[in-house]
Design the sequence.
């Protein structure tokens, strides 16, 4: 499918790399929201010729840039060359590829284009190579070829000639897709609403506290309450529409070699990551999701570390059983490895202390203000203290961890409950971290750092258990084959 | 720094001297600034009841005491352990962190030298994995040993795909 083949792509310093799609400057110009916004404002302020000039200059600049952007794929390397004055050549070997994503916005779809984004574990912000844009068929074929070549590289099979790349038989598209989960537009909308929980909580709090503010300050409270009530209606509506548009028509599939998510009503995305590159999986259940017995699942790869959204496949709203089914399909050994071990009693004492100390200090300050300003309602702040006591208990009850079959499973969060699963074999480093307060209670946090963004954190373990677990996980990371033998508890 | 033992090792004692000097330089700079501000404000304020420079002097003394204590405490809580497969290290005064890094996860190695390190003939070694959230930083390795330590680490990294 690549014009320069069946010959391998020449070395980057030679001519022979392909240009991007001829319409890519148009798609790029359309994605320059700030330029279009500037053109519109300019047109409004200075006349239509300003708009024409801004859009024209943008397209001319992008067209000139397009002439200097070339790419190629020779079955082993993806090469991207760009720059008019300062030329840059980026080469990414397929064995380092973590993820290949296809992105289409509405302009891409109208023009039959697709962006191909190739990620490694470089830690760079954004994709390592972003081909903006190729023809839709060309982009999809390129993605399949890169993944097939990567699968071959992983198994040590090398193509005898370039044509063999077109018939992948190791992982990749040669395997039938197994659908792990689908998500209706309704579920996608619900996912959008549950992701807007912070705004909803803020609006609810403002609606509740508005009259109180009015009582104390004498004005502004009613307006705050009315604004918050409007927000309470508007925020879920906007969030639902956003969720449905972003995640509508969602399908999560698995082949022997990769896991793949396709979604989006306007901007469509087709994201694939090799199964053996998956670093951690998290099930996230906030209050809204729990209300509907649903969960979000995040599958984290080692893609570009500077941009968390580029390092994961996310299904924001699945029935809980389906979400667990996805985990079972990807990592069957991580299921049923024993009951969660609760956090120790010392963690309960610490949580209660933490969650009552601040409310008590706040209530004491509120009492002083109440006396000084003659506002007895502020004394109600003391209600926060028993609330904090209860919340501390809830924080403690939510904590748990278990380890076995070479996996660590960690649970935390009384409201937004997150259960993270990480294979010990993926641990890059293992850390035991203690603060002075934790040392006082004999507690420690255990961090398992994986490639890509962030770490999986087991909170408030007994110190000795954290050190012991760190040793076991490190040993398993060094000798992944012995993971089952080292499993315990 | 010894590579032929898998016991915990403290840092080179020269690190303590380097850290003390570094902290003292910083503390003295802060102290001089505090004394200067104190004297300037005393001269511009006729109703000043304390002798000029007294508050600044007290702050300077406190800064110097903290500087010496910090260097000693940081050194006391630092240890590192090499074995055939990886490195384990612990550091931190208030928040204490113990990190274990298998060598085969290594992505790249840096050496670092600040001006105080160079004055005491020391070099730092920084080991990076594919996890951006953590790196293993071993300060104060004798400059004459740094190549051997780096070679020891790189040789054990192997050529497996560590991601």
Sequence:
């Amino acid at each position: 499918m690549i014009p320069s083949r069946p010959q391998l792509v020449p070395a980057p310093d030679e001519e022979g790399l392909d240009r991007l799609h001829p319409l890519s400057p148009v798609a790029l110009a359309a994605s320059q929201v700030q330029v279009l916004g500037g053109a519109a404002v300019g047109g409004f302020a200075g006349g239509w010729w300003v708009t024409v000039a801004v859009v024209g200059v943008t397209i001319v600049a992008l067209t000139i840039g397009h002439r200097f952007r070339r790419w190629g794929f020779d079955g082993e390397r993806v090469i991207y060359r760009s720059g008019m004055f300062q030329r840059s050549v980026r080469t990414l070997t397929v064995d380092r590829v973590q993820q290949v994503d296809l992105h289409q916005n509405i302009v891409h779809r109208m023009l039959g284009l697709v962006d191909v984004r190739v990620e490694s574990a470089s830690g760079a912000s954004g994709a390592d190579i972003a081909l903006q844009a190729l023809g839709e068929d060309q982009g999809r074929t390129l993605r399949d070829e890169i993944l097939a070549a990567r699968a071959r590289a992983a198994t040590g099979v090398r193509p005898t000639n370039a044509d063999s790349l077109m018939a992948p038989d190791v992982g990749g598209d040669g395997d039938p897709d197994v659908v792990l989960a689908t998500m209706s537009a309704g579920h996608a909308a619900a996912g959008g609403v549950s992701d807007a929980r912070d705004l909803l909580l803020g609006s609810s709090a403002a609606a509740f506290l508005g009259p109180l503010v009015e009582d104390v300050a004498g004005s502004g409270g009613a307006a705050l309450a009315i604004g918050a009530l409007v927000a309470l209606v508007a925020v879920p509506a906007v969030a639902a529409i956003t969720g449905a548009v972003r995640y509508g028509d969602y399908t999560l599939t698995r082949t022997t070699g990769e896991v793949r998510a396709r979604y989006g009503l306007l901007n469509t995305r087709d994201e694939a990551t090799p199964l053996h590159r998956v670093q951690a999986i998290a099930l996230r259940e906030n209050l809204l999701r729990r209300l509907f017995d649903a969960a979000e699942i995040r599958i984290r790869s080692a893609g570009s570390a500077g941009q968390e959204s580029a390092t994961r496949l996310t299904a924001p709203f699945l029935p809980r059983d389906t979400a667990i089914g996805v985990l079972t399909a990807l990592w069957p050994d991580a299921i049923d490895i024993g009951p969660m071990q609760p956090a120790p009693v010392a963690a309960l004492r610490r949580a209660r202390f933490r969650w009552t100390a601040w409310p008590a200090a706040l209530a004491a300050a509120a009492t002083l203000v109440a006396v000084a300003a003659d506002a007895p309602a502020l004394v109600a702040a003391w209600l926060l203290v028993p609330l904090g006591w209860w919340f501390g208990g809830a924080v403690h009850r939510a904590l748990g961890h278990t380890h076995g079959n070479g996996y660590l499973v960690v649970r935390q969060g009384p409201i937004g409950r997150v259960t993270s699963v990480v294979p010990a074999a993926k641990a890059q480093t293992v850390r035991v971290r203690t603060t002075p307060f934790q040392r006082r209670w004999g507690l420690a946090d255990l961090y398992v750092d994986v490639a890509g963004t962030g770490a999986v954190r087991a909170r408030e373990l007994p110190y000795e258990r954290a050190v012991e677990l760190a040793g076991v996980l490190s040993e398993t990371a060094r000798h992944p084959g012995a993971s089952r033998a080292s499993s315990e508890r | 720094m010894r590579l032929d033992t898998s016991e915990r090792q403290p840092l080179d004692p020269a690190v303590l001297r380097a850290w003390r000097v570094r902290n003292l330089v910083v503390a003295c700079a802060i102290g001089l600034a505090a004394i200067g501000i104190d004297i300037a404000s005393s001269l511009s304020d006729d109703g000043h009841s304390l002798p000029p420079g007294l508050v600044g002097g007290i702050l300077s003394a406190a800064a110097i005491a903290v500087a010496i204590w910090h260097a000693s405490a940081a050194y006391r809580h630092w240890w590192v352990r090499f074995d055939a497969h990886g490195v384990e290290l612990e550091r931190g005064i208030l928040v204490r962190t113990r990190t274990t890094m298998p060598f085969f996860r290594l992505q790249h190695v840096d050496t670092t030298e600040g001006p105080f390190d160079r004055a005491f003939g020391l070099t730092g070694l920084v080991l990076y994995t594919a996890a951006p959230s953590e790196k293993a930083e071993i300060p104060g390795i004798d400059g004459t040993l740094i190549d051997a330590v780096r070679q020891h680490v790189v040789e054990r990294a192997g050529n497996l795909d560590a991601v």
